[in-house]
Amino acid sequence: LLSRGLGDVYKRQDDFNITSEDKSEYDTYFDELEHQDGRLSEEKVRHYLMEISELSDSALDKIWELSDQDKDGFLDRYEFTVAKKLTWIAYDYHEIPDQVVISPHTQLLTQ
Protein backbone atom coordinates (compact mmCIF):
# COMPACT_ATOMS: atom_id res chain seq x y z
CA LEU A 1 0.00 0.00 0.00
CA LEU A 2 1.83 3.12 1.19
CA SER A 3 5.56 3.48 1.47
CA ARG A 4 7.76 6.00 3.19
CA GLY A 5 11.38 6.97 3.00
CA LEU A 6 13.88 5.75 5.54
CA GLY A 7 14.51 8.27 8.26
CA ASP A 8 11.29 10.15 7.50
CA VAL A 9 9.82 10.77 10.95
CA TYR A 10 6.52 12.35 11.93
CA LYS A 11 7.31 13.91 15.31
CA ARG A 12 4.19 15.88 16.16
CA GLN A 13 1.03 17.08 14.48
CA ASP A 14 2.47 20.36 13.22
CA ASP A 15 5.67 18.73 11.92
CA PHE A 16 4.91 18.60 8.21
CA ASN A 17 8.03 18.21 6.12
CA ILE A 18 8.29 16.90 2.59
CA THR A 19 11.67 15.67 1.44
CA SER A 20 12.91 15.99 -2.12
CA GLU A 21 12.47 12.20 -2.38
CA ASP A 22 8.83 12.54 -1.25
CA LYS A 23 8.26 15.30 -3.79
CA SER A 24 9.73 13.28 -6.63
CA GLU A 25 7.60 10.24 -5.72
CA TYR A 26 4.41 12.30 -5.34
CA ASP A 27 5.02 14.05 -8.67
CA THR A 28 5.27 10.66 -10.36
CA TYR A 29 1.90 9.61 -8.91
CA PHE A 30 0.34 12.95 -9.88
CA ASP A 31 1.45 12.44 -13.48
CA GLU A 32 0.29 8.79 -13.53
CA LEU A 33 -3.20 9.91 -12.51
CA GLU A 34 -3.47 11.76 -15.82
CA HIS A 35 -4.31 15.24 -14.58
CA GLN A 36 -6.27 17.65 -16.75
CA ASP A 37 -4.64 21.05 -17.14
CA GLY A 38 -2.51 20.40 -14.04
CA ARG A 39 -5.46 19.50 -11.81
CA LEU A 40 -7.02 16.31 -10.44
CA SER A 41 -10.71 15.97 -9.58
CA GLU A 42 -11.85 15.10 -6.08
CA GLU A 43 -13.35 11.85 -7.36
CA LYS A 44 -10.07 10.73 -8.93
CA VAL A 45 -7.98 11.68 -5.89
CA ARG A 46 -10.37 10.10 -3.37
CA HIS A 47 -10.49 6.86 -5.38
CA TYR A 48 -6.70 6.75 -5.57
CA LEU A 49 -6.17 7.53 -1.88
CA MET A 50 -8.79 4.99 -0.82
CA GLU A 51 -7.14 2.36 -2.99
CA ILE A 52 -3.64 2.86 -1.56
CA SER A 53 -4.57 3.48 2.07
CA GLU A 54 -8.01 2.01 2.82
CA LEU A 55 -8.69 5.07 5.01
CA SER A 56 -12.23 5.85 6.11
CA ASP A 57 -14.43 8.35 4.28
CA SER A 58 -14.16 10.72 7.24
CA ALA A 59 -10.35 10.57 7.13
CA LEU A 60 -10.41 11.26 3.38
CA ASP A 61 -12.82 14.16 3.97
CA LYS A 62 -10.36 15.72 6.40
CA ILE A 63 -7.41 15.15 4.06
CA TRP A 64 -9.36 16.78 1.22
CA GLU A 65 -10.35 19.74 3.40
CA LEU A 66 -6.71 20.38 4.33
CA SER A 67 -5.37 19.74 0.83
CA ASP A 68 -7.78 21.68 -1.40
CA GLN A 69 -6.40 24.96 -0.15
CA ASP A 70 -8.08 27.16 -2.76
CA LYS A 71 -11.40 25.29 -2.34
CA ASP A 72 -11.93 24.84 -6.09
CA GLY A 73 -12.81 21.12 -5.91
CA PHE A 74 -9.56 20.08 -7.61
CA LEU A 75 -5.99 19.45 -6.49
CA ASP A 76 -3.05 20.93 -8.33
CA ARG A 77 0.43 19.37 -8.03
CA TYR A 78 1.20 21.23 -4.79
CA GLU A 79 -2.15 20.35 -3.18
CA PHE A 80 -1.76 16.72 -4.25
CA THR A 81 1.63 16.67 -2.52
CA VAL A 82 -0.08 17.82 0.68
CA ALA A 83 -2.83 15.17 0.28
CA LYS A 84 -0.33 12.38 -0.31
CA LYS A 85 1.74 13.36 2.72
CA LEU A 86 -1.37 13.60 4.92
CA THR A 87 -2.46 10.17 3.70
CA TRP A 88 0.89 8.70 4.70
CA ILE A 89 0.63 10.35 8.13
CA ALA A 90 -2.93 9.09 8.63
CA TYR A 91 -2.01 5.58 7.51
CA ASP A 92 1.12 5.31 9.61
CA TYR A 93 0.07 7.21 12.73
CA HIS A 94 -3.73 6.84 12.66
CA GLU A 95 -4.20 10.57 13.01
CA ILE A 96 -4.51 13.60 10.78
CA PRO A 97 -3.28 17.01 11.90
CA ASP A 98 -5.89 19.72 12.42
CA GLN A 99 -3.83 22.09 10.32
CA VAL A 100 -0.90 21.89 7.98
CA VAL A 101 2.11 23.99 8.89
CA ILE A 102 4.48 23.93 5.94
CA SER A 103 8.17 24.27 6.74
CA PRO A 104 10.20 26.81 4.71
CA HIS A 105 12.21 23.90 3.22
CA THR A 106 9.00 22.21 2.08
CA GLN A 107 7.68 25.44 0.61
CA LEU A 108 10.77 25.69 -1.60
CA LEU A 109 10.44 22.08 -2.73
CA THR A 110 6.80 22.40 -3.70
CA GLN A 111 6.98 25.66 -5.64
Characterise the protein shown here.
The protein is mainly alpha-helical and 111 residues long. Helices cover 54% and strands 4% of the residues. It contains 5 helices and 2 strands. Strands 1-2 form a two-stranded antiparallel sheet. Helix 1 packs across helix 4 and helix 3 packs antiparallel against helix 4. The longest helix is centred in the C-terminal third of the chain and has 17 residues. It is globular and about 30 Å long. The N terminus is likely disordered.
Question: What is this entry, summarized?
Answer:
By secondary structure, the protein is mainly α.
What's the structural blueprint in terms of helices and strands?
Blueprint: H1 20-32, E1 40-41, H2 42-53, H3 57-67, E2 74-75, H4 77-93, H5 104-110
Antiparallel strand pairs: 1-2
Helix pairs in contact: 1-4, 3-4
Tally of individual helices: 5
Class of secondary structure makeup: mainly alpha
User: Mean pLDDT across all residues, rounded?
Assistant: 81
End-to-end distance: 27 Å
Which structural traits does this protein have?
mainly alpha, disordered N terminus, globular, 54% helix, 111 residues
